[in-house]
Specification:
With 155 residues, the protein is an alpha+beta fold. It contains 3 helices and 9 strands, in the order αααβββββββββ.
Length: 155
């Protein structure tokens, strides 16, 4: 199983690899998920995704909205579901004001994440229309809140 996952990860492009770093942030989720019971209760965790507007794979121009993949890995030995993914907004970075890069919330994301599996979600990211050209050279971090629940009732 791990070898198959490794081969899948090697097939990602450069940005997908960066987005996969978000997955690493979710490794700690296993601790939180362990306290969830019955599929009715949930927990939240914070993840971060880094967006670089002048990226060669997925460039983002001022005033433009594009879809970026957000990978969420289930590190547990039982299934989970993602109930929601919050909106995100960048903080002040390199002289670019807070909110230069924003993302829309992912409402009612679909899907069950099998044990130790990865699921991708579409994240709509926007660069402010009035952003200075120097902001395209910056890397912005968007903090996102992910609500998780056990998926025992969904099986």
């Amino acid at each position: 199983m791990e070898k198959g996952l490794l081969e899948q990860v090697r097939g990602f492009n450069v940005f997908d690899g960066l987005a996969l770093l978000v997955v690493v942030a979710l490794v700690g989720v296993g601790f939180f998920i362990g306290s969830i019971g019955g599929g009715e209760t949930g927990t939240t965790t914070t993840v971060e995704i880094t967006i670089t507007p002048e990226d060669t794979v997925r460039p983002l121009s001022t005033g433009e909205t594009k879809v970026f993949p957000l990978y969420i890995r289930n590190p547990t030995d039982y299934g989970v579901r993602v109930d929601s993914i919050s909106a995100g907004s960048s903080s002040e970075t390199g002289g670019c004001p807070a909110g230069t890069i924003t993302s829309a919330p992912v409402e009612g994301p679909t899907g069950f994440i099998s044990p130790t599996s990865i699921r991708a979600y579409d994240l709509f990211v926007t660069m402010e229309a009035g952003a200075d050209g120097k902001c395209r050279e910056q890397s912005f971090t968007l903090p996102l809140t992910v609500e998780l629940a056990t998926a025992a009732a969904d099986r």
